[in-house]
Every structure is written in C-alpha cells, then in structure tokens.
Amino acid sequence: MEKRHEPGRRTVLGAAALGAGAAVLAGAGQAQAAGPAERAAGPAARPAPAGRPDKLPVPLVVGHRGASGYRPEHTFGSYQLALDMGADVIEAGDLVPTKDGHLVCRHENDISATTDVADHREFAGRRTTKTVDGKKLTGWFTEDFTLAELKTLRAKERIPDVRQHNTLYNGHWQIPTFEEVLQWAEREGRRRGRPVWIYPETKHPTYFRKLGLGIEEPLAKLLRCYGRHTAHAPNFVQSFEPSSIQRLGKLGVKCPKVVLLDEPSVKPWDFVESGDPRTTADLLTPEGLKWISGFAQGIGPWLPQIIAQDEQGKLGKPTTLVRDAHAAGLVLHPYTVRNENNFLPLDFRVGKNPGDYGNSLAYFKALFATGIDGLFSDNPDTALLAAEEFRRH
C-alpha cells in the first residue's frame, strides 16, 4: 500500500465483527531458506501458533513494511527492527511471484527502485516495459526472474531523497521470500514466548493470475504449512482486490482478512477486469461496507478517508467512516503515517525541508481519537508512543 477509542473497545478484535466474522476475530540477520528435511517434516508437524486476536492492543500499530522509516523496506533488517521496537504486527510482505512461482516480499513487482538490479550487467536485457493494472511501467519485474536470480540482488532504499540516512544500509540484505518470513516469525515467536503477528498483502493478484502465476494458492499453501491459516492464527491478510480476499476464504484461509481501499475515484483492478461498475467510493458507503463484511473482517482505508483534508492539505473533520465500518462489524487499519513533513498534512509540518520530521505525534493522536482500531506506520516507535499516550488519557 502506498497512499493513499471508543470507551470499551479494548477487545475490538474479538468482538467488533459479530455477525460478520466473529468466529474469525473472537534480526537483523538474513533468514535462511529451509532445507529439504525441514520442508518435509517441519511445518506440517508444527502446532498452530496461538493467535488470540482479542488480546491485541487497541489501537494497534502495524510496522509498515517493517520499520521502513529507518531501514530499506521489506528486508529482515526492517522487519527485525520493527519487532524490536515493539510493533504489534509486522507488514511482512507485499507478495509478488517469481518466474518459478515463489512468493517474495517487495513493494511492487517492478524492482527497479528497491534493488540494485540496474547494477547487474547480466540482467540488462531484462529491462522492459509492461502495463500493470492499467499503468505503463519500464523496469525490471520479479516475474521475469527465478528465485535464484533474485537472490543475487540486494535491497536498497526506495526514496533516498527523503530518507538519505537509510542509504547506509543499501546492499546489506537480500530479497526475502514469504516462506523465510514465516520461518523468521516462528523463530522470533519461540524466542519471545509469544506469537509474532504478520500482515501479508496480495499484490496485483488479477494481473498475476492472467500470467499463470496466481498468488492466492501458494499463499494459502504456505499458511497451512505453518499453521497460520486458522481463525486465530497470528496474521491478517490484505488486498486491494476484494476477489483476492474472497478467493483466500474459499481456499480455507480463516484468519482475519482486510480489504484495502484506494482513493474514492479509483476502481479496484479486479472490478475493472470483471466489468463491475463500482468504485472505491461505492465501497465506502454503508451498503458497500456491509458487502465487504460478508467475506472480510476489516478495511484498510486511505488516511484522508478517516479525516478529510482541505484543498490546501490541512486536516479537516473526521468522516463517518469509522462509525459506519464499526456498524458493519468491520475493524479499521488505515495507512500510512510517516514522520517526515513530505507525508504529513500541511498543518503538521515543521519547517520547509520535506525530509525533516514534522509533528507526527499530534497527527497520530488525532487519528487515534477517531476510534480507529490501529494504523500502519513507517515509524513504529513514534506510533507506539502516541498510542500509549492516547490510551493513558
């Protein structure tokens, strides 16, 4: 994703979805791939992690692609730092497939900005132009590489003009596979004596299905192998395409599922492909939210859908979305709050440098005051401090 307390709601994840899914909601080191013996005898023999969604704090903090305000996103350095900071959930995986069908964790299938692929002369001929969800892109794409080839690349900071300090870590970490993420979560869970919550996303699922590289089936298989497909497994699954969430449900994935919401005028790409006339604006209505509650337990709105901004970009008044979503039995985890001025409403910026930190603590608190159940942040430590102060008052 890229855009884009009420008294007594302490156990919202166990109770908010009554009638619409209450049964569901009642390291910096590089991880190593599992060997043949572990794959053959390990995951299937392991007990399912104990999820206890009702025990997650409200509002909860999701480390967006880890702690991507401090480390290159979707690396084990970023994931581990978010966990060490205390993030309640780690968004470990915008999932895209490789040419040979493995799921890897990247912001997009276009890896031009997030890896050093341009420095690899052997892959110069792989640079190409494609149309992904109606947008023409030129670069290098995961679906044109085998996993072994991708493992020769190293991750780098995606927005170096804003996060110059993060470039220190360029080249340090490989691209993680989702199976490596699951193994890392198991190891960290055993070490900490509690489950590590993760929040994977299916990225461009309709596009990949047309290429014969469907995401949902391998995702469901991996979740089953590691006991994370059950109603109380310690993970959420999310997608901007409602049909992807529906497909995961049909594949037996019972953990909490979340529909991500783009800007109001945008159509989910699966709607474009199927001829569904609805836009995101239709899904934001009480009728649209009721429809979502038939197969999902939450929504991931764009921040201005929670508190509108005026034409100048200053914060306005809260919308009715929190009230309407809760009335439909849905939790809300909006995205994405970042500390830098560049990403904050105009009246929360400090100084003129877009890379300097603004008054993000105040913005976090304003969002929490609307009654949201959690949010995504590139800066989990700041979000956790704001959440703690909010709960205290």
From TrEMBL:
Its EC number is 3.1.4.46. GO terms for biological process: glycerol metabolic process; lipid metabolic process. It is an enzyme of class 3 (hydrolase). Residues 36-51 have a biased composition (Low complexity). The keyword Transmembrane does not apply. Transmembrane segments: none annotated. InterPro entries: GP_PDE_dom (IPR030395), PLC-like_Pdiesterase_TIM-brl (IPR017946), TAT_signal (IPR006311). CDD domains: GDPD_ScGlpQ1_like. It catalyses: a sn-glycero-3-phosphodiester + H2O = an alcohol + sn-glycerol 3-phosphate + H(+). Residues 1-33 form the signal peptide. It holds the Pfam family GDPD. Coiled coil: none annotated. One of its GO terms (molecular function) is glycerophosphodiester phosphodiesterase activity. Residues 59-387 form the GP-PDE domain. Residues 36-57 are annotated as: Disordered. Keywords: Glycerol metabolism, Hydrolase, Signal. One of its GO terms (cellular component) is periplasmic space. Belongs to the glycerophosphoryl diester phosphodiesterase family. This is glycerophosphodiester phosphodiesterase. The lineage of its organism: Bacteria, Bacillati, Actinomycetota, Actinomycetes, Kitasatosporales.
